[in-house]
Design a protein that fits this description.
single chain; 516 residues; alpha/beta; Rossmann fold; Hypothetical protein af1432; 19 helices; 12 strands
């Protein structure tokens, strides 16, 4: 009968049964022996029987048991008290209470203290197997539930890590882009515009403004802004003393900048942010230089720590670029001043060519503006035109100031001055277009010029412009070997040589300058 009962229940496999540990607690020897034999027939190998609650607690404390079959009424500590102590041991043990005198109170108390099931004496051995099956199914269900929970938690953790990784990748990408972009900016105006544009893009904001201190830090002047209608670069914003100490922006400007204003005004000295705006101070060599203000995040979201981190990084890198530009500009001014001194020395040797470079510069700039040259090209001409003949310092005075015609050998020496000039300025870090002004201002449109024999549009445009200005001033100035040509003759020479010596487009623009 028992064997048939065992084979009807297939939920617990032989392997499951062999791995189980069972403890039987009952003061009746017959019950203990019967259950011991039954569990052996089931295939359970680890079975222990005791006759009291005290011994049961000792067994639980010594080893692990999956199931405890325990009588409710025993001498010494009863089943409920034993159950409490088993629970205190915090072992994952299923306790099945066996009793012949159940009451509702005892059932409730036993369940409250962790009992998994009840067997009413006298019970059939089949009932024990059913109880095992039921509890095992419950355990399997709980295990699956726990695994699902763990899987869900792991998925949430992976999603969290992915989100954090995406944020870090975004921040790193933004930082790399900032560094890469700043490395290609060499004009202050472009730098300030980039700062405002990038701060808006990085924080998904609608407004941004960059201002610098002036007049002993009593005012702020707008250098660049986006999103503020009517607020132009050059606008001055006054600062006033705060009742709480420090300085704050004028209230009318705060209202202009933000939809949500700061109570009492906006303090520009320290970095901070709230739902409506963020401001970041700019310091150069630990001295206040300016302040960046960003406002109105898209979709009415609030600025956060990530926004602050990116803007602080942008501010630090931009401040470093500003300082480097200032140092570079100072160095270049010093070098250019030295070169201008050399040019003055060259022109001082020849009274006929005094102020030649300044006039050529003036003509070149006017011509370039008529031709619609870019701001960068205008600046290049303004910087390089005054020293376009710097290479003549390497030509002997006897050749430069010779009153008669030059010999072929002397002319070959004169033709070297563009290359000598390029060699002089090359260590200064000028770009190729700037050096081309010096190198190629004696090239001809027909390709018969020097030093490279370039033809047509292959001659750099700025060199073509300076070439016409240089030739015009040379013709209308007295030289050691000839007197100045009449103004009309100078204009005629330009027209006659347009398309051969000179770029026709440049000649047309230059004639407008000379006759205007």
């Amino acid at each position: 009968m028992q064997i048939e009962t065992i084979q009807r229940y297939k939920t617990l496999t032989r392997r499951d049964l062999e791995s189980l540990a069972v403890l039987v607690v009952d003061d009746e020897p017959m019950v203990r022996e019967t259950l011991d034999l039954f569990f052996q027939n089931l295939g359970i190998l680890n079975i222990q029987t005791v006759d009291s609650g005290e011994k049961a607690v000792d067994e639980i404390n010594r080893g692990r048991y999956d199931y405890v079959f325990m009588d409710l009424m025993m001498p010494g500590i009863n089943g409920i008290e034993t159950l409490k102590r088993i629970r205190e041991s915090q072992q994952l043990t299923s306790v099945i209470i066996m009793t012949g005198y159940p009451s509702m109170d005892s059932v409730i108390e036993a369940m409250r203290n962790g009992a998994s099931d009840f067997l009413l004496k006298p019970f059939r051995l089949q009932d024990i197997k059913i109880s095992l099956e039921r509890i095992q199914k419950f355990h399997l269900l709980m295990e699956k539930n726990w695994l699902l929970y763990q899987e869900l938690e792991e998925k949430k953790e992976v999603e969290k890590l992915n989100n954090e990784l995406q944020h870090k990748i975004r921040v790193q990408t933004v930082m790399y882009n900032i560094v890469d972009s700043l490395s290609r900016i060499n004009r202050s105006e472009d730098l300030y515009n980039y700062l405002v544009k990038k701060s808006i893009e990085s924080c998904n904001a609608k407004k941004a403004c960059f201002m610098i201190y002036e007049h002993g830090n009593s005012n702020l002047m707008v250098l660049s802004q986006r999103g503020h209608e009517g607020l132009k670069p050059g606008t001055r914003i006054s600062l006033r003393e705060s009742p709480k100490g420090g300085r704050i922006l004028d209230r009318s400007y705060v209202d202009l900048l933000f939809t949500e204003t700061a109570e009492g005004g906006l303090f520009p000295d320290g970095r901070s942010y709230n739902n409506g705006f963020m401001w970041i101070p700019f310091n150069i060599r630990n001295q206040p230089f300016g302040v960046l203000i960003v406002a109105e995040k898209e979709e009415e979201k609030a600025f956060d720590d990530e926004d602050e981190f990116i803007l602080m990084f942008l501010a630090e890198r931009t401040a470093l670029n500003i300082e480097n530009m200032a140092l570079y500009d100072n160095l270049m001014e010093s070098l250019m001043a030295s070169l201008m001194s050399l040019m003055g020395a060259i022109e001082a040797k020849d009274p006929y060519t005094q102020q030649h470079s300044s006039r050529v510069t003036e003509y070149s700039l006017k011509t370039a503006r008529i031709m619609g040259c870019s701001h960068d090209d205008i600046q290049r001409l303004e910087s390089i035109s005054p020293i376009h003949d710097i290479g003549k310092i390497g030509i002997h005075d006897s050749i430069l100031n010779k009153p008669g015609n030059l010999t072929e050998q002397e002319f070959r020496q004169i033709r070297k001055h563009p290359l000598i000039g390029v060699n002089i300025v090359s260590p200064l870090g000028m770009d190729s277009e700037e050096k081309a002004i010096i190198r190629n201002h004696h090239e001809r449109w027909d390709g018969k010029g020097y030093p490279d024999g370039l033809r047509g549009i292959n001659i750099p445009r700025l060199a073509r412009i300076l070439s016409v200005a240089d030739a015009f001033d040379a013709m209308k100035s007295s030289r050691a070997y000839r007197k100045a040509l009449p103004f009309s003759k100078c204009l005629k020479e330009l027209r006659d040589n347009s398309g051969t010596q000179f770029d026709p487009e440049v000649v047309e623009a230059a004639l407008t300058v000379f006759t205007g």
